[in-house]
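As described in the Methods, two query proteins were run sequentially through the folding procedure within a single session, without resetting any intermediate state between them. The first query and its resulting structure tokens are shown here.
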Amino acid sequence: MKPASQRPDITDAQAWWRGAVIYQIYPRSFRDSSGDGVGDLGGILNGLDYVASLGVDAIWLSPFFTSPMADYGYDVADYCGVDPIFGTLSDFDRIIKKAHHLGLKIIIDQVYSHSSDQHAWFSESRENRTNPKADWYVWADPKADGSPPNNWQSVFGGGAWGWDSRRQQYFLHNFLRSQPDLNLHNRDVHDSLLDVGRFWLARG
């Protein structure tokens, strides 16, 4: 299979990803370079020659960010950090450098709809209703009887609202209770997530 850049049906005027072949890598299970039984960024680096030999155009990396791993990395505690079980930011930079040398693009699976409840943003948001990040997550008052504001259900089962005793409010979690939903109607949240995107784009 030829990469999109070498196929006559993909013109220069089209976005590179139209017709591109993208290889997904789930870091935890792809390749282990440290011998601890968990796949890591070093393993990905060592496997890039193999991936390139398949003729793909890009690699889609599943989350490798700092996380308590309640949802295998989809509960992010630091959007600009690499979880120690996977390696370091320098390891990621080496992946970028080698991937580009091999003609591969890198796509990072960013998780922008929610964070971990251990993220500093949520820790501040739940302190009270007046702090600078009070509106960074989806909060709602209980009904008169103390029950959740509605009957929305989590993707993982059960109600989608978690009670927080400090704020005396419910917070929305479409997945695990430990994955509170960000308030994407808040402009400051937009700006912070865009900063995250710029952080990773600046690495190459």
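Immediately afterward, the second query was submitted; its sequence and tokens are:
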Amino acid sequence: MGEAREENGKAARRAEQEGRPGTGSDPARRRRRQGPERPEAVDEAGTRPEQAGEEGPQMSVEQQAAMAEEFVRGVVECFDAEATTSVLVEDTVVNVSVSGDDLGLLVGPRGATLDALQELTRTVVQRRGEEHGTRIVVDVAGFRARRTAALEAFVRRVVDDVLASGTPEALEPMSASDRKIVHDTANSIEGVETISEGVDPRRYVVIRPRRSALSGSDES
């Protein structure tokens, strides 16, 4: 009996030294099997790191113009409006125009629907190819031209008040396109400057006396 226990002990020690499970061996000391290799790293979009910076297909300005007009025409047809679309390319600016009668639904209150249509058009073109600095402008029934003229006249009146009183004037919240018109118009006039404050859709422009003009008046 003693000899049998001794033989079992020797067998267990040999198995332990060889890394094989055996009587009396410690399972924790067994060699772990290596799992399969980890798959190549990809990001959440399924793109490999070296592909993350790759650009999409490049399109010419003319191709982008054709795509923009096609998209706008499709939207007009969805509205069941009797209208025609045209496109004009000026340098890197693509102007898509919609002409017709009773197009108020495509314009919306203060051009809100038109602004949304322009943003959608820009997004569609951008997703299908690189924009390369191209600016896309969509207009319906000449609304933007009339809106621009009205805003420019309004801004000039506000600038006159600011220069006369020396007090900043905060305008009502506007879309990004309207704010750009305000900035461009006001900053073309000597003695005032503009800043934007707030967060969309409540972002607005403040027209104020230019700081250099204020400091100059203080010194005198």
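The chain has a mean pLDDT of 79. We note this only descriptively and draw no conclusion about the first query from it.
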